[in-house]
Design goal:
ligase, Nic_PRibTrfase-Fam, 2 domains, binds nicotinic acid, binds 1-O-pyrophosphono-5-O-phosphono-alpha-D-ribofuranose, phosphoprotein, Nicotinate phosphoribosyltransferase, alpha/beta, about 475 residues, nicotinamide phosphoribosyltransferase activity, TIM Barrel, nicotinate phosphoribosyltransferase, binds adenosine-5'-triphosphate, 17 helices, about 20% strand, seven-stranded antiparallel sheet
């Protein structure tokens, strides 16, 4: 997106509702909206929060330029007094959010917006757009990296991303989720993340023969020399030619710091094992074998199980598009309205579907860790004013199936509040960490998950529970609504 001001990056209905609130001044109360999602992408056990830095930029830039107002005027939907009001519009509210790179679970607020409803309503679409996209790709990257069991994953998807923005911000999110580098140079420039790459088949095809192509490449890039060996015949031509070049480079005394081959077709398990043997026998046990070709977490996992001799992976389409799960279902729901005395009145949205009934009130989240292992036991959503003493026992129960209870004994668990203030009174009070620092934080976050939660198929779910007080408010509201 080649413009900084994304104020009109919204659904028309946000603006028509905004005009409605404007015309009925009593409607412009301060409200609370929560961003949350209902199920983990790819049927996984968790998601990775991402996109907050871009949400912050969006809120900071939020204003209607003269050009924006002229455009809206031309739609013949908005009246002059409302258009005049837009001239001085800015965000004056509070935003709390879970920092990027944090592992998150269904139904907990990822972002909480507290603002006059005209402001809070407008920002719904852009916030969801940004958080939904980046959290989806960061989660996918974490899954792919998990499958690779510590091997490096390079993000290769720019050519297949759904447009330039998805390519750049998707690569940013993929780095947060654990990729070691991206081929996306603009992402590297914007976010100071490592860029890496090999070469394409066209490089080989542009030379009279494969050997000359390899040799020329190796002479130009001896410190990052990964040769693509499958243009003609991987085992009969590609690997032998690569070995010949490596031998010549070694003989010439050229120091190779990072060198090897890339497989991009055929049976990657079989070819990698054969290639490993050939490279080892030729005296190149440290030559890297990397692979690409429509890979995803399941194929990488399968190749690992097959004993493939691959230690570096290039993943494009499946990662940048989150091919098996194209959308992160984040939603934005009103949870409270401030009354005249300044207290928040909890609001609830009913649904036939229990999962879709919202959690009311002004909330915060405690992450509950098992003290001994440091692993996540559950998340506890409670009201802002609630505090818990770690030395006392803590009752956890599933809000969807409240008869399922666990009591943690005092001293056996620790608590961490996971939402941080981002904007207070319209002023930003949070500095986004650098992407590589978010990535490092995300690794420590992923370590707090049990392996059973990280596994790719049928993972163990982490409970997101409500405090007794919040649960009672919810049940009370539900009772009252069903009686009215
Ligand atoms: N040993 C393996 N086990 C499971 N899947 C594999 C294995 N080796 C390769 N694959 C995957 O199988 C899919 C199809 O590979 P296939 O051999 O058809 O590609 P190719 O035809 O050789 O390559 P291309 O069409 O890109 O030139 C790819 O997603 C690839 O990653
Ligand atoms: O995970 P992937 O989507 O496969 O991304 C990486 C692929 O991109 C490149 O080739 P490209 O797809 O342009 O052509 P190819 O399919 O003919 O190899 C590269 O050679 C990889 O195969
Ligand atoms: O550098 C590479 O090898 C690369 C980059 C993008 C897509 N496929 C491969």
């Amino acid at each position: 997106m080649d413009r900084q001001n994304l104020t009109l990056l919204t659904d028309l209905y946000e603006l028509t509702m905004m005009q409605g609130y404007f015309k009925n001044k009593s409607q412009n109360e301060t409200v609370i909206f929560d961003v949350f999602y209902r199920s983990n992408p790819s049927d996984g056990g968790y998601a990775v929060m991402a996109g907050l830095e871009q949400v912050i930029q969006y809120i900071k830039e939020l204003h209607f330029s003269q050009e924006d107002i002229d455009y809206l005027a031309g739609l013949s939907i908005f009246q002059q007094d409302f258009l005049d009001y837009l001239e001085d519009f800015k965000f004056t509210g509070d935003i709390y959010a879970i920092p990027e790179g944090t592992v998150v679970f269904p139904r907990e607020p990822l972002v909480k917006v507290i603002a006059p409803i005209m402001q809070a309503q407008l920002v719904e679409t852009a916030i969801l757009n940004i958080i939904n996209h980046q959290s989806l790709i960061a989660t996918k990257a974490a899954r792919v990296c998990y499958a690779a069991r510590g091997d490096g994953i390079m993000e290769f998807g720019l050519r297949r991303a759904q447009g330039p923005d998805a390519g750049v911000y998707g690569a940013r999110a993929a780095m947060i989720g654990g990729c070691v580098a991206t081929s996306n140079v603009l992402c590297g420039q914007l976010f100071n993340v490592p860029v890496k790459g090999t070469h394409a088949h066209s490089w080989i095809m542009s030379f009279p023969d494969e050997y000359t192509a390899f040799k020329t490449y190796a002479e130009m890039y001896p410190s990052a020399c990964i040769l693509l060996v499958d243009t003609y015949d991987t085992l009969k031509s590609g690997v032998p030619n690569a070995i010949r070049v490596f031998k010549e480079m070694r003989k010439a005394g050229v120091p190779f710091s990072y060198y090897g081959i890339r497989l991009d077709s055929g049976d990657l398990a079989y070819l990698s094992k054969k290639a490993r043997k050939m490279l080892d026998e030729a005296g190149f046990p440290d030559a890297v074998i990397s692979a690409s070709n429509d890979l995803d977490e399941f194929l990488i996992d399968s190749l690992k199980v097959q004993g493939a001799s691959i230690t570096s992976w290039g993943v494009g389409t499946s990662l940048i598009t989150s091919k098996d799960c194209p959308a992160f279902g984040g939603v934005y729901k009103l949870s409270a309205i401030k009354d005249k005395d300044g207290t928040f009145i909890p609001k609830i949205k009913l649904s036939e579907n229990t999962e879709k009934v919202t959690n009311p009130g002004n909330k915060k989240i405690y992450r509950v860790y098992e003290k001994e292992s440091g692993k996540i036991k559950a998340d506890l959503i409670c009201l802002m004013e609630e505090h818990f003493d770690e030395e006392e026992s803590l009752l956890l129960f599933d809000p969807l199936e409240p008869w399922k209870k666990t009591r943690l004994s005092g001293g056996s668990y620790t608590l961490r509040e996971i939402m941080a203030p981002i904007f207070l009174g319209g002023e930003c009070c949070y500095e986004s960490p650098k992407v590589m620092d978010i990535r490092a934080y995300c690794q420590t976050e992923l370590d707090t998950l049990w392996d059973e939660t990280r596994r790719l198929i049928n993972p163990h779910k982490v409970y997101v529970d409500l405090s007794k007080k919040l649960y009672d408010i919810k049940i009370d509201l539900l009772d009252r609504m069903s009686q009215s």
